[in-house]
Amino acid sequence: AQKVTQAQTEISVVEKEDVTLDCVYETRDTTYYLFWYKQPPSGELVFLIRRNSFDEQNEISGRYSWNFQKSTSSFNFTITASQVVDSAVYFCALSEAVSSGSARQLTFGSGTQLTVLP
Amino acid sequence: DSGVTQTPKHLITATGQRVTLRCSPRSGDLSVYWYQQSLDQGLQFLIQYYNGEERAKGNILERFSAQQFPDLHSELNLSSLELGDSALYFCASSVVASGGFGEQFFGPGTRLTVL
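Output (structure tokens, whole complex):
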């Protein structure tokens, strides 16, 4: 069975600080996909990034960066120079490989509430 | 805007009642997924449909059912509602691109309150 653990329930930082959100996953599959979603106070789920299990390159997108380490089954998310607008719940998720032409369902972690104070 | 629409946005009903939540996927997406987000259970996968057929089932109660219609919109039916069914229900859709995986894009959700 798949499992995603986000041990940090809540994190509070002051604006302009860097913050890292941790994500540890468990799966028996050799091919899988990892995701991060953002849920702002308005409630919608916003897709941030997808990472394939066979691609361990770290990725940077503006102030966001992701560190995927297969050896430790972790997919951590760092926000550099945080802003108040980054305040949201962040979810890490895992999915198995595509099956019969359709993407598989997501297994979500419990989320990390990030509060960025002005 | 993800392109996935869900109606209604809010729903308030009483215990024992039955409700229907509706989802229209993004144009061209064949897969529809339903998820439930509650305070105690977090974000849970309920059920997936692909081109009209049930593809996968998660932690969906027997009181809940879903279907996907020929125009690819989907409905989630919740019956004999209990207080614990109060939650945010998300629909997502995806299409598998030629290169492999397709991201799931989520609708705005339907907030169900059972009184």
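Chain B has a mean pLDDT of 92.
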